[in-house]
Design brief:
With 351 residues, the chain is an alpha/beta fold. The strands form 2 sheets. The protein has a 6-stranded mixed beta sheet with strand order 1-8-7-9-6-10. A 6-stranded mixed beta sheet has the order 3-2-4-11-5-12, sandwiched between helices. Strand 7, helix 5 and strand 8 form a beta-alpha-beta unit. The longest helix has 17 residues. The two termini are 19 Å apart.
Length: 351
């Protein structure tokens, strides 16, 4: 059942923004052709040699996060000299698994892939059930940060972003309160002063997207790789990509910078939304992992992510990669967890 969300108004004020961190792939030796090189080797040896590591996916098998983890796991195992096993622990939009990771032993034998937009927003909003502090996690690195895109019906009356902005009322869709889809729709509505409602109650994101494709709603804001097939088929139109440049695999589409926000603090809201999306899909471990073991995990992850065979597998499945090392990623997380008051208010109202 679909229900209409609160009508989104405008909000004025001041906001600040820091530049988005840039990523550079870290070389870790000759890992071509099978990832035989192990990471973290020093005079004390590789701390994970022969150990078992659980690689937790906070969702059911078969989705994008599960796919990333299962592609990476064998290469990470080779680089660490360890057995890496993927475990699925679905529940509460990833909150349950993240709570479990936060309270697990800090030895690096439990790592997790995270939808950082969702869990970061939940922490910022002080959402019920959040028993973790992402600022304390032992960050191993980022896999990808696919930009958000505003999807509209390829044959509808409001296929362009300007059409949405000029509408007397636009209806966005989202799976539920607190999700990245809902937050993005709320931020864009505020920044561009779009009179809008947000319909929720869909079993999953594909159901919400299909509602737009069918012409029963106007827009869905999603990571571009999740809806790429609709652009390739022509069933959906990319009204705006929330990025400074078109990402890999993305067909020609307007960038959000081509449209000027209308509210006083609109540009800051959009910039902070883009920075939040830049946290992307990351891998972390419990707080307090010892320095030598965390360094080995970071080196092993970099070793796996630069493996040419793994890169080719990502490319075959059109899975974007935007690697960022753990130390740099931790700085990005700290930035995101300290938003302006205006952005925090939008996030809180989205839950």
């Amino acid at each position: 059942m679909i229900r209409s969300g609160r009508k989104i108004g405008t909000m004025a004020g001041r906001a600040g923004i820091s530049a988005v961190l840039l990523a550079t792939v870290v070389a870790c030796g000759d890992s071509e052709g099978g990832g035989e090189t192990t990471a973290g080797n020093d005079e004390a040896g590789n701390p994970f040699e022969g150990e078992s590591i659980d690689f937790v996916v906070p969702y059911d098998p078969g989705g994008g996060y599960d796919t990333y983890a299962r592609l990476i796991a064998p290469y990470l195992g080779d680089c660490l000299g360890a057995r890496v096993t993927v475990l699925n622990e679905p529940g509460a939009g990833g909150i349950l698994a993240t709570n479990q990771t936060a309270s697990s032993p800090a030895d690096g034998t439990r790592i997790q892939i995270l939808d950082m937009i969702g869990v970061s927003a939940a922490q910022i909003a002080g959402s019920e059930g959040v028993n973790f502090d992402l600022g304390e996690f032992s960050w191993i690195g980022r896999i990808a940060a696919p930009p958000l895109v505003v999807l509209t019906d390829g044959d509808g009356d409001m296929t362009s972003f300007q059409g949405l902005a000029d509408a007397s009322e636009a209806q966005f869709v989202a799976t539920g309160l607190g999700g990245s889809e809902y937050i993005a729709a709320a931020v864009l509505s505020q920044a561009y002063e779009i009179p809008s409602t947000i319909a929720t109650g869909f079993p999953g994101s594909p159901d919400a997207t299909n509602t737009v494709i069918a012409g029963d709603a106007d827009a869905h804001v999603m990571p571009y790789d999740s809806v790429l097939r609709f652009f390739e088929s022509g069933d959906g139109a990319p009204a705006a990509v929330l990025s400074d440049e078109l990402p890999q695999y993305m067909p020609e589409a307007p960038l959000i910078g081509e449209f000027e926000p209308q509210s006083e603090n609109g540009q800051e809201l959009v910039d902070q939304l883009i920075t939040l999306a830049d946290t992307g899909r990351a891998v972390g471990a419990p707080p307090g992992v010892p320095e030598d073991r965390l360094a080995a995990l970071r080196d092993g992850f970099a070793c796996a992510m630069e493996n040419e065979e793994l890169v080719a597998e990502f490319d075959t499945q059109e899975r974007p990669v935007d690697f960022l090392g753990g130390e740099e990623y931790a700085q990005l997380v700290d930035e995101v967890l300290d938003p302006t008051a205006e952005f925090r208010t939008v996030v809180e109202e989205s839950f």
